[in-house]
Amino acid sequence: MDILILVIGLALILLGANYLVDGASAIAKKAGLSDFIIGMTIVGIGTSTPEMVVSFASAIKGNADIAVGNVLGSNLFNTLMILGITALFYPIRLTSNNVKKDIPFSVLASFVLLVLGCATWLDGAATNSITRVNGIMLLALFGVFMAYTIYSSSSQKNDVIPDNSQGSTKATPVWKATLMVIGGLCGLVFGGDMFVNSASAIARSLGVSDAVIAVTIVAGGTSMPELASCLVAAFKKNTDQALGNVIGSNVSNIFLILGGSATIHPLVMSGTKPLDLITLMIASLLVFIFAFTFRKKQIDRIEGALLVCIYIGFIALTLHAL
User: Fold this and answer.
1) Burial code of 144-161, b = ≥16 C-beta within 10 A, e = fewer?
2) DSSP bridge partners of 299
3) Domain definitions of the chain by residue range
4) Superfamily name and number for 34-161+208-321
5) What is this structure's pTM?
6) How many CB atoms lie within 10 A of CB 61?
7) Which of 68, 155, 169, 281 has a CA between 20 and 30 Å from the CA of residue 264?
8) pLDDT tens for residues 92-101?
């Protein structure tokens, strides 16, 4: 039964991702916005819903380790595995705005989390924690991020990567595109929930510890919507939306989800390891650096393979330390 639920969950994720990408692209054309902006907002935040549900529920129950670990693990999976796999299928082209503004925002989010996780080193605090005041500040930064995204949409129009496939596609009515986005998000949320629950049950039946489940299944499972959305976008050669999805999701995870979780209940980061925070910081910086290596303004297949290898190495080190 758990295996059947796992398969159904994956099917819902894939179908939901396809509808979400198509609906979001249609709305982007109708609104005159770039696919990247849609990816950062509707798709990026929407596919972060599983992380939001898990982290908020964990915060309410006072389980800070799951709330923080879920976000940290998901961002690592997003940056290393999802961008890496997407680039393996089709190189991710970058615009000037991506390099100068969007990716640095993701780096900033990772840096803020790194600072919060090193409070004991930086100011001699008793514990590394995200207080309610920190949570409110993170929510404020999320507001700044959203305001910037909306404001920059006008300039982004002049820096959009051409999509030659759109010319032969019939325009989708707004009402239909909206239903596609809503239906896609529902499929992603319910599919992601089914996947995590069934995968966790299977892992426990095999005698795998909860720690291993948290590091692998929960973080990877709640990121399945982002992975599915990015792969569908890559197959459609719409990698700017895939990049926007990852950046929007990563920033939303740290500023919105952790900020909201800490506002609900202060989060003590007792289970967060320096390796996790440092790896996320390095991963965010690598995405920025890749814009200037080999072919400029592109994450190519070699760089994508490097990101995937770093994630595999991180998981291996994490499991070895358990």
Assistant:
1) ebbeebeebbeebeeebb
2) 92
3) 34-161+208-321
4) NCX, central ion-binding region (1.20.1420.30)
5) 0.76
6) 11
7) 281
8) 888 777 788 7
